[in-house]
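User: Second chain of the day. Same drill as before.
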Amino acid sequence: MNMVEIDTTHIRGMQEADIDYFADAFFALGWGDRREALQLYYNEQAASLRVVLVAEYNSVPAGYVTLVPSAAVGPFAGQHIPEIKDFNVLPSFRRLGVGSRLMDEIEAVAKKTCGQIALGVGLYGDYGAAQRMYVKRGYIPDGSGVWWGNNNLAPYKNCVNDDDLNLFFVKQLI
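Assistant: Same format as last time:
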């Protein structure tokens, strides 16, 4: 008898309880306190300044993605291209399709207002899986080079390979 896999991922808007849930989960992973950023996301969602989608896997919050309608800084500033600003899937939920479902949904949201979507991705090894996923999904480098701390990094300038060192990508939404 063939088994039929049931899709156990549900996508919804961020709820206030998600702030503590994700903050505690990130802290347990050693990522530091992200509560302030998560509270900002929730507040901006309430003010219609940001879309925040949460994926639940078997009714447990597994990850989230945020989208701003237009980048304020970086290579897409002022171009009115929606930009993914934060995307996380908790490690225990990776490789289950959760990230792909979140990306499908956030791209559909962006497509309602623009024919493109943008994002920046870190350059150190922890971002490797995300880098590969974005390329597989049709994102291409925007050609502006490497950015660090919201500034285009000039050739031969020193920087730190941290979360603020990014390469930006764009995708045409068909």
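The chain has one domain: 9-172.

User: Great, on to the next one.
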